[in-house]
Q: What sequence folds into this?
């Protein structure tokens, strides 16, 4: 049995017909017809296994089942974008979990029902990253998953340091509390960072 340095589980959410299965099939090296797949990536000398599963709706139990969320809507359907918004709102009412949004089917931009400004404004308010992809053209599939993976590896590394009480934990710099009490430099003075 293969051993991995890290393992992450992602859920891919979205309305019916947005291309969840197609995105997973493009990303994963092993994919089955039940909407589940997995792949192994090598990142910074670590072997990382990523399991991906699709679902149409969000459930509270997913916070314990999955490490990250990919929400997909389709360029050619405003209804799927509204459904995407509802999904994000229901996810955000609970604990923190990394989320990335994919606009799939950008090869159909001529048939778009969604204004780019509207999408960017909404996602900007929520501080969410948007990737535009096309599963049909196998375009920009890896980037959204890499973004979530980066968030997860950072989070897992930070949690490892705090739970294991590594030497790195003991030499952390103090927080910035109280920094506001120090006098500010005048415009003529130079500031250097060491």
A:
């Amino acid at each position: 049995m293969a051993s991995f340095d890290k393992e992450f589980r992602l859920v891919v959410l979205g309305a019916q017909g947005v291309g969840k299965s197609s995105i997973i099939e493009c990303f994963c090296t092993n994919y089955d017809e039940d909407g589940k797949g997995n792949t192994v990536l090598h990142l910074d000398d670590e072997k990382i296994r990523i399991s991906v599963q699709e679902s149409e709706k969000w459930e509270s139990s997913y916070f314990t089942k999955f490490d990250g969320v990919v929400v997909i809507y389709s360029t050619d359907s405003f209804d799927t974008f509204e459904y995407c918004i509802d999904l994000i709102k229901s996810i955000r009412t609970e604990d923190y979990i990394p989320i990335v949004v994919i606009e799939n089917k950008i090869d159909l931009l001529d048939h778009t029902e969604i204004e780019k400004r509207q999408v960017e404004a909404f996602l900007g308010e929520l501080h969410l990253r948007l990737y535009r992809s096309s599963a049909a053209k196998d375009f920009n599939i890896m980037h959204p998953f890499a973004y979530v993976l980066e968030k997860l590896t950072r989070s897992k590394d930070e949690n490892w340091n705090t739970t294991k009480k590594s030497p790195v934990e003991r030499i952390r710099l103090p927080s910035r509390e109280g920094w506001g009490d120090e006098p500010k430099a005048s415009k003529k003075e130079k500031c250097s960072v060491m």
